[in-house]
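Changelog note: in this version the structure field was regenerated for every chain. One regenerated record is shown below for reference.
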Amino acid sequence: MKILKETVTKSGNKIQLIGNEINKKILVIGVFHGDEPQGKFLIEEYLDKYPDTKLFFIPCLNPDGMSLETRTNANGVDLNRNFPTKNWELTEKNESFGGEFPACEIETNFLIDVINEIKPDIILTLHAPFKVVNYDGPAQDIAKKISEIIYYPVEASIGYPTPGSFGTYCGIEKNIPTITLELDEECPAQDLIEPVHKIFNLLENY
């Protein structure tokens, strides 16, 4: 595996895009929210087991938030509300604060650059805690296949407004099949290795 792209956050932590020279155009992202660390663990376990994977990975998009054990990054911004979508809006400064303006955060711009550079055909993001396979854009078929592995229901809507979300930015506005896999936060991450790695293997062969 190689570090293909890297940036440094406000707190000096690194965000890395990892992959091999020959990759499928499928991107997997962990830790949008710092209090949802399962994705980093599951991705790193997979990379240890399958170092020749053809998938692209960002194991941890929000290392500052993970260090602080907060949903937001070091600036108090929810990265999943900071994308330059048509429905972005300036909100109250709470745990879903979308920033002072769209794409004002280092982490957001890093991911936008990655999307523009690798032009993924499918994107999978790992979240918690809702136990659903949420999707945006033309992703219903792959969402159903993922559901058959992990036994979570498929949902086109998470059930509440998400202005400036990554799913809207990539799935709806860029028409890239985008899956938000909401993992069970009460399930030990160790017990999620088998189903989530099967999902990664599915994407390897998709």
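Spot check on this record: The mean pLDDT is 96. The helical segments are 38-49, 63-68, 106-118, 140-150, 166-172, 189-204.
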